[in-house]
Specification:
Layout (H helix, E strand, L loop, with lengths): L1 H37 L5 H16 L7 E6 L9 E5 L4 E6 L27 E11 L2 E8 L14 E2 L7 H7 L13 H11 L4 E5 L3 H6 L7 H8 L3 H4 L1
Parallel strand pairs: 1-7
Antiparallel strand pairs: 1-2, 2-3, 4-5, 4-7, 5-6
Helix pairs in contact: 1-2
Length: 239
């Protein structure tokens, strides 16, 4: 009798846990699902990781953003691999070509760096900051949120800017668009819109299936103490 009662209690407990998971799941996954419908060319794996990293940052101290930009560097430069989403409306705003660093690879980027002068792109979670007019015109500064991975972005002058070499015609001539010195450069025709959509504290997530990063990122694996220590110095700029 006791054994039957114990088994019944375990079964009920399991059902409660399963029920809670079922109830929570549609809410937790609603953003992922809606955005994936808007951008079928964007890998669901990459989208899920971008949203998970962003939500980890906001649950540990950073203000939520209105928009999210995702770059999938596992795709070739000859294809659109930058997506910008309106998070409140769960809507795709832009799907565009974007350059990688000249030392990151040819059509495919395979090497990434956080080192000044490397002329390579960086991966990881970024926070956009102020727009400005510089040598490339209207541009946008980025702060990397991952120490050792992309936190030298400002020191390296890694910014979003316009570049003539981000041009579909380059693809037909040489099989890829041109390359930057590490910046996620975009077409001149849409650069102002990109900067205006992303300036002032939005999130940008740059992806590549780097095993070390995937296994150790405090945001992808959501390690609250590490994340809180990373973003503490940025809270003044984020407010």
């Amino acid at each position: 009798m006791f054994q039957r009662c114990r088994q019944w209690m375990l079964t009920v407990s399991s059902l409660v846990i399963m029920s809670s998971s079922v109830v929570a799941s549609p809410f937790d996954q609603s953003l992922n699902y809606s955005l994936s419908l808007q951008a079928p060319a964007l890998s669901k794996v990459v989208l899920d990781k971008a949203i998970a990293a962003m939500q980890c940052a906001t649950s540990n101290g950073l203000k939520p953003s209105d928009r999210l930009a995702i770059i999938d560097f596992s795709k070739p430069s000859s294809e659109p691999r930058l997506w910008i989403f309106d998070l409140s409306k769960k809507r795709l705003l832009m799907e565009e070509l974007v350059a990688h660093g000249q030392n990151s690879g040819d059509n495919f980027a395979t090497e990434f760096s956080n080192v000044v002068g490397s002329h390579q792109s960086s991966i990881g979670l970024f926070r956009t900051q102020e727009s400005y007019f510089g040598r490339h015109g209207y541009s946008l500064r980025l702060d990397g949120l991952e120490p050792g991975v992309n936190d030298k972005a400002r020191e390296r002058a890694i910014v979003i800017h316009a570049a003539d070499y981000v041009d579909p015609e380059w693809v037909s001539r040489q099989g890829r668009i041109g390359r930057s010195q590490g910046c996620p450069a975009v077409r001149p025709e849409i650069a102002q819109e990109v900067v205006d959509q992303l300036k002032g504290g939005q999130f940008m997530f740059s992806y590549f299936p780097d095993q070390q990063w995937l296994e150790n990122s405090a945001y992808l694996n959501c390690q609250p103490e590490r994340v809180a220590s990373y973003i503490a110095p940025l809270k003044g700029a984020d407010s």
